[in-house]
Structure formats: structure tokens, C-alpha cells
Specification:
The protein is mainly β.
Length: 815
């Protein structure tokens, strides 16, 4: 064999190895489609024979779900995208009250947060957010982008459905639909006067009241709808010493919507949502570091500087500090206003629409940063030691305006098209501040110079020295165009493209972290980012009930500014990009009493936005930089069945295997890694603009906050018990495997299984349910993060806990 032949053979072998999973998945999908065609034909023949012999009762069909994921109304089973959609009936039956609850029903998506709904981070298909900056998943309310991550988990008080679109869809939704998109779709105003009232009472002070009413205001011209909600809980964890609870909240929400129809061709829809919430200090567990180097001197001498192994709450209790200047436990205040106005017009040969959106979010956070009721030890100048809480605060004020103008052809044509442009303008002011609660200090006591820069006042109020205040602006304009062509009656090709120009500016108004370095306050030049997104799809309707599709798409997560940057080369970071190949199949069997949807994908991400030390040796803070990439392979399966009358079974499995590629490094933990035998071989030296640097090679490791396997199972049963009443029972179970806390994969929280139960009776007007959430009282952390101790500037983990087992009763009335 010649050298050329050998090289060709090796390339083929490598290609076979890297694509074998895709070939197998496509083969499975193809076989499913062919089998479906045969099964459908057999179903038809069997049904005809059965009809000829004798009539027989059949289970009800699975209710068709209509979605608008592609900006038009379509049957879910006809859309060549991996979508999990949940209607209002399902949301109510499963007791979905938050975005976190929704993740329990959605294979391929997990939700990480620090114990409150104001800091929610969805992860879809293993594409986790690795640093600061924009989110990986774009979230919309009635088509309006919710840009501020603090606002994405809204009160779910009056929704028609929620759609979870998996995989990069930036060509459809624009920037930050990098890993997928979530659409909240509100209920439309009804023609006839109707409404609902719901009351929920449960353990730990759980109280909830919701109500909505709507109908025709001016017959044939104007319809309206009003909804309100109140939801509160004391939290399921309590400090045994301070008696303060953690993890509670109080949420107040309201929404008003209308539909105006001046003519048969013109429809105007509008909605306004307002939410005012308060979240208590989250329930967290402080964990002592247990591996790596040890602190050499000071009040923490001899303590480890890293954490290895499983992060567990076993044998530990939640501690809540009393912080000076607050009425007990601290927490987070949030106000969200979101409005939309959509004008739709039928031009005859095409449909036009203009959608305007406005969002305003204000948030203030005041919290203990240690997870210990008495804080952490600090050295005094007189040689003594005192334990003090460490404080973290933040203020954010964000408002944005958006407009989308779209023109689309009629959907009954062989060639269908749509195009338009999108405009986005946002302003935000944000501040963060770190300090020490010095209220325990007696007159004459002062801290040593090591912590003097963390100024504190006699009354224990926040330090005004270690503070960052910045004002940012974003302006974005994108043009989009899409087309769909029926090559054959059952074979369709489609393509979408979007060009985006994004301009950002940022003024650093104050920053102690940068005060004594090379850059003066306020100097950040404007930055522009330009990028293109596409999606190409080929879908084949094997039969009317069975669809195969193959798609290729890319995604973009916006670039941004580094407020802590001190040198020109680090002032901005570039967009993060991804490319996806996906093959899927959507199938209905047995007269639509069984649905089986499967999708396989391969995603490659580049220019990861990661936190890393600055190349300026005088700068101590981390900055966001672009390094390396990931490759994620996965398979998703969702099944819905109605085997007998009244019983609906659902199941889903998602397998996700993301890995860091060569050239991906951790810049923060090389010294600690070198002292840990399992990690030391990964420490390497690379050349940077400032010379040689020791880093941790991440190639082959798993990104944080990703479960390799997620499984969701559900059963809902309804049966008549009298002429007007029916009994119902529902169980939902979710299992997900361990997730790593950081890219170096030294620590993780373990596998988690959560089971929820609901049972009761209902009529056409009443529904009474008894429920138990987290039946097994699972306390595996929902999230863990490292918080830096100000006494030695070493990070230790805080494990955030999910709510404990909670029982309650819910009563709904409809009219």
C-alpha cells in the first residue's frame, strides 16, 4: 500500500469513528419511518376489518399541539425541529409553577440556579454557560426577547403553552439562541366571558392565589383578558440557631392583554406583564475544602484550598446569618415589566406583522457570601480573631426596546418565503459591591491590613471601596430571510439566513478593582460585532404521520465587554459560535395514540467565553476571554402513549456527551491542580502574549452543569366516578446523572431523582388536587458554586439545596 493510500485509509477510519453515531442514529430514524409507514397501513387495514366485524371502543387520540416555534402556527409533529411543548392543561396537571419545574418534564434541558428564580441558567444539550456575558438560551414572552437573565423565570400565571426549542436556532431567533430557545405564549382573550380562580395551600407557609377573566368587550371588535397571581412560601429550611428560614419567596404578578380587530384583515394584539418579587436568602451548605495545597499562614493556616469529590448535603445543616442593617435574613428584590404590541395585516398575497416589545427589570440583592451563620474568621490587629459575615450586594437596572417587521407568503403555496428585520436597543446600569459585616466589632478592634482594603464601617454597612459600577448600551440590527420549497409533495427543503450587526458601549463609572492599574475609569471604546447565522433543513414525510428530517445550523452567543479589563487587548471578547448537524424523526402510530420522536445531533462550539486571569500582572480579577471549544454528541427520545381510555403515558431520555476540545484550558487552577495527583498530569505550559503560563489542559473533560443522562417519566390517569365528576392521578419522575461544578472535573454533585404526585377529583368547573412535591425528600444539591473568602482569598464551595418534600392542596374553579 502506498503512502497516499495509507493516509486515505487513516482518514476514512477517523471519519468512520467520528460519524458512526450519526449513521446509526440516522439508520434508526429511517427504520422508524419505514416501520411507521408499514404500521400505519396495518393500522388502517386492522381498523377497517374491526369496523366490518363489530364496533369497539378505542382509547382517545393524543391531542394535537400547535406551536409557533417557526413564527407561524404548525402542528408540533410537522415541525422539523426538536421541540418539547406543554399546553396549559399539562402545566396545570403537572403543577408547573416555575421554569425549574418545567425542566423536570423536558429531556435535554436542565436548570441551574443559586436557590432563587432570579438567577436561572437553562442548559440545553450540554451547552453550558462557562463564563460571564450573555446567556446560552434565548427566552421570549409572546415573541419579545427577555434580555436580562434576572427576568427569565416569570410568574406562570396565564400561559397557553411553553415551547422549548432544542439546538442552535439563531437564524430564527437571533443572537443568544445559541443552545436553544424557550417561548412563553400567553392565553389569548376569549370570545365569551370566562375565567378561572385557583387557591393553593401547603406546608412551610405555601400560599398561592391566581385568577383570570376575559371576554368580548365590544363584540366583533375588542376582546380583553386580565390575570393576577400571588405566590409565597416561608422556605423549607430553617437555621436551628438564628431561626431564620431560607429559600422562601413572595411573588406578585399581573397581566393584561387585548385583541382588537378593526377589519377582517387587520388584527392588533397587546399585552402588559408586571411582577414584583422578593426571594429570601437561598438555602445553602458551606463545605470545607478537602484537597490541593494548604494555606501557609494566617487565621486559615493549614486549611486546604480546593474541593475534590462529591458535593453532598449529608450530615450538614443550612445556616443563615443575621446581617446588620437588614430585618433578619437578606435576599433579593426584583421588579419586571414586559410589554408587547403586535400588528398583523393580511395583504391578500402575503401576511405582514410588526411586533414591538419593551422590558424593564430592576433588581437589588443583599446576601451573606459564606453560607455560615457566624461568618468566617478574621485576624485583628491586637492578635485576636473574630468571625464576621461576608457581604455581597448588587443593583441592576435594565430596560430595552425591540421591534420586528416580518412579511411572509401564504402557506398554501409550493414555494413559501418570509423576510424582515429586527431592531434591539438596551440600556443597563449595574453595580456590585463586596464588604464585611463589622457590626460585631467592639470599639478599638480593627482588622489586619490583609483585609483593610475591604473597607467596613462601624455599623457593618457595605464597603464603598471594593465596588464596580458600570453602564452599558447595546444596539442591534439584523436582517433575515427564509424560504421553503416542496421538491415533491412529501419532500421539502428549507433554508434561513440572518445577518446581525451589534454595537456595544460601556462606561466604567467606578471600580476599586481597577483603581490602581493602567486604565483610568470610564475609558472603554465602542465595539462592534458582525455575524451571520443560517439553518438548512431537508424533511421527508414518509407518510402523513411520519416525518424524517436532516438539518445543519449554526448559533452565535454575543461578544461583550470586560469591565475589569486593564489592557487594550482584553477590553472586549468575541462571540462564541457553534455548528450543529441533526437528524430526527417524528412519528405517530396506532391512529395517533402513540407518538415517538427521536433526534440525534453533533454540536461543535468554538471561541468559548471563559473566565481567565488577565495578562496584566498588576490586575488581580478575572476577565472573559475566548479559548478552545467543545464537541457535544447526543440522542433524545420522547414518547407519548394512550394505551387505554383515560391513561396518558409520557417518557423521555436524553443522552448528552460534551467534551472539551484540544486547545481548551483552565487558567485559574494550575497551581492547585499540580498538587492533586489525579489532576497534576493535566498541568501544561503554553505561550501567551505575555509569555509562558501554566494552565490546566481541559481536552476530553466535561463542561460543568451537564448531566450525561436525563430521564423523565410520567403517567396521568382520569376516569369517571359519577355523572359529573372524574378522578385523576398523576406521577412525574425525573432522574439526572451527576454534574461537575467546574471544568477541571474535580468536584461534582451526584445523581438526583425527584418524584412528584398529584391526585384528586374534577368536574367541568371544579378541580381539587392533593399533591406531594419531592416525594422522596431528595436533597442532592441543585447547584454548587465557589465563593471567595475575604480572609485568605481562597474559594470554597456553597451547595444550594432544592426545596424539601412539600404537601398541599389546590382548588381551581372555572366559569
Amino acid at each position: 500500500m502506498t503512502t497516499t493510500q495509507q493516509s486515505s485509509s487513516l482518514r476514512s477510519a477517523r471519519l468512520s469513528t467520528s460519524t458512526r453515531w450519526m449513521v446509526l442514529a440516522y439508520g434508526f430514524s429511517l427504520a422508524a419511518g419505514i416501520a411507521a409507514g408499514s404500521a400505519t397501513a396495518q393500522d388502517t387495514t386492522a381498523a377497517a376489518n374491526a369496523s366490518a366485524a363489530a364496533p369497539a371502543a378505542q382509547p382517545e387520540q393524543i391531542q394535537e399541539v400547535v406551536v409557533t416555534a417557526r413564527k407561524r402556527k404548525e402542528r408540533l409533529q410537522d415541525v422539523p425541529l426538536a421541540i418539547s411543548a406543554f399546553g396549559s392543561a399539562t402545566l396545570e396537571a403537572a403543577g408547573v409553577r416555575t421554569l425549574q419545574d418545567l425542566s423536570a418534564l423536558t429531556p435535554g434541558m436542565s436548570i441551574n440556579d443559586d436557590g432563587t428564580e432570579s438567577q436561572v441558567t437553562p442548559v440545553i444539550r450540554g451547552m453550558a454557560k462557562l463564563g460571564e456575558g450573555d446567556p446560552n438560551v434565548a427566552i421570549f414572552l409572546d415573541g419579545v426577547y427577555l434580555a436580562n437573565p434576572a427576568s427569565v423565570s416569570l410568574g406562570l400565571i396565564d400561559l397557553e403553552r411553553i415551547e422549548v426549542v432544542k439546538g442552535p436556532v439563531s437564524s430564527l431567533y437571533g443572537r443568544n439562541a445559541f443552545a436553544g430557545a424557550i417561548n412563553y405564549v400567553s392565553k389569548p382573550p376569549p370570545e365569551k366571558l370566562s375565567g378561572t380562580v385557583g387557591v393553593t395551600l401547603g406546608q412551610y407557609g405555601m400560599k398561592s392565589v391566581t385568577g383570570s377573566v376575559g371576554g368580548s368587550v365590544i363584540p366583533g371588535l375588542l376582546k380583553g383578558r386580565v390575570a393576577i397571581g400571588y405566590d409565597s412560601t416561608d422556605g423549607t429550611f430553617k437555621d436551628s440557631v438564628t431561626k431564620l428560614r431560607a429559600g422562601g419567596h413572595e411573588k406578585k404578578d399581573a397581566q393584561v392583554s387585548f385583541e382588537l380587530t378593526p377589519s377582517k384583515d387587520l388584527v392588533i394584539n397587546g399585552a402588559l406583564y408586571y411582577g414584583k418579587d422578593f426571594f429570601d436568602e437561598p438555602a445553602s451548605i458551606y463545605l470545607e475544602d478537602n484537597c490541593g495545597p494548604k494555606v501557609a499562614a494566617g487565621v486559615t493556616a493549614g486549611q486546604y484550598t480546593q474541593y475534590c469529590g462529591e458535593i453532598s448535603s449529608s450530615g450538614k445543616s443550612v445556616e443563615v446569618a443575621k446581617i446588620a442593617g437588614s430585618a433578619g435574613a437578606s435576599g433579593n428584590d426584583r421588579k419586571v415589566t414586559s410589554g408587547s404590541l403586535k400588528v398583523s395585516y393580511d395583504f391578500g398575497g402575503a401576511d405582514g406583522s410588526a411586533l414591538f416589545g419593551y422590558n424593564k427589570v430592576t433588581q437589588q440583592r443583599f446576601s451573606d457570601f459564606t453560607g455560615r451563620r457566624d461568618g468566617i474568621p478574621f485576624a485583628l490587629t491586637n492578635g485576636g480573631v473574630v468571625s464576621l459575615p461576608e457581604l455581597f450586594g448588587s443593583d441592576a437596572n435594565n430596560d430595552d426596546f425591540s421591534g420586528e417587521f416580518r412579511l411572509s407568503s401564504k402557506q398554501d403555496q409550493r414555494l413559501r418565503w418570509s423576510g424582515g428585520f429586527y431592531y434591539f436597543d438596551a440600556k443597563n446600569i449595574a453595580s456590585t459591591i463586596i464588604g464585611i459585616d463589622g457590626s460585631k466589632l467592639t470599639p478599638g478592634q480593627t482588622l489586619t491590613s490583609a483585609t483593610a482594603k475591604q473597607y467596613l464601617t462601624a455599623d457593618g454597612s457595605f464597603s464603598q471601596a471594593y465596588q464596580t459600577v458600570g453602564a452599558g448600551k447595546t444596539k442591534l440590527l439584523s436582517e433575515f430571510l427564509g424560504g421553503e420549497f416542496d421538491i415533491l409533495p412529501n419532500l421539502t427543503a428549507s433554508a434561513e439566513g440572518r445577518h446581525t450587526q451589534e454595537d456595544k458601549s460601556y462606561d466604567l463609572l467606578r471600580s476599586t478593582a481597577v483603581a490602581n492599574t493602567v486604565r483610568p475609569f470610564g475609558y472603554l471604546p465602542d465595539a462592534g460585532f458582525s455575524y451571520n447565522n443560517y439553518r438548512a433543513t431537508l424533511n421527508w414525510k414518509v407518510t402523513k404521520a411520519n416525518l424524517l428530517y436532516l438539518s445543519s445550523a449554526n448559533g452565535t452567543k454575543a461578544g461583550g465587554y470586560n469591565p475589569r479589563a486593564t489592557i487594550t487587548s482584553e477590553l472586549t471578547y468575541n462571540p462564541e459560535t457553534s455548528d450543529t448537524i441533526e437528524v430526527g424523526s417524528k412519528n405517530s402510530f396506532l391512529g395517533n395514540r402513540l407518538q415517538v420522536n427521536v433526534a440525534a445531533y453533533r454540536i461543535t462550539s468554538k471561541d468559548l467565553q471563559v473566565l481567565a486571569p488577565s495578562d496584566n500582572p498588576l490586575a488581580t480579577g478575572l476577565v472573559t476571554r475566548n479559548f478552545g471549544g467543545t464537541t457535544s454528541k447526543g440522542l433524545e427520545l420522547e414518547v407519548t402513549a394512550r394505551p387505554i381510555t383515560g391513561l396518558t403515558l409520557t417518557g423521555g431520555v436524553a443522552y448528552t456527551d460534551p467534551k472539551f476540545d484540544n486547545g481548551s484550558y483552565d487558567f485559574s487552577n494550575a497551581a492547585a491542580c499540580a498538587a492533586i495527583p489525579s489532576c497534576a498530569p493535566r498541568v501544561v505550559t503554553i505561550q501567551t502574549a505575555q509569555g509562558a503560563r501554566s494552565v490546566v489542559n481541559l481536552a476530553g473533560l466535561t463542561p460543568q452543569r451537564v448531566s450525561k443522562v436525563q430521564t423523565s417519566l410520567g403517567a396521568n390517569y382520569i376516569t369517571p366516578i359519577s355523572e359529573n365528576w372524574s378522578y385523576f392521578g398523576r406521577v412525574d419522575a425525573r432522574h439526572e446523572t451527576k454534574q461537575y461544578m467546574a471544568p477541571i472535573n474535580l468536584s461534582y454533585w451526584g445523581s438526583r431523582t425527584v418524584v412528584n404526585l398529584r391526585t384528586g377529583v374534577e368536574s367541568d368547573k371544579w378541580r381539587v388536587a392533593v399533591f406531594v412535591n419531592n416525594l422522596t425528600d431528595n436533597r442532592v444539591p441543585s447547584y454548587a458554586a465557589t465563593n471567595t473568602r475575604l480572609n485568605d482569598f481562597v474559594a470554597n464551595p456553597l451547595a444550594y439545596l432544592p426545596a424539601s418534600r412539600t404537601a398541599g392542596v389546590q382548588v381551581n374553579y372555572s366559569f
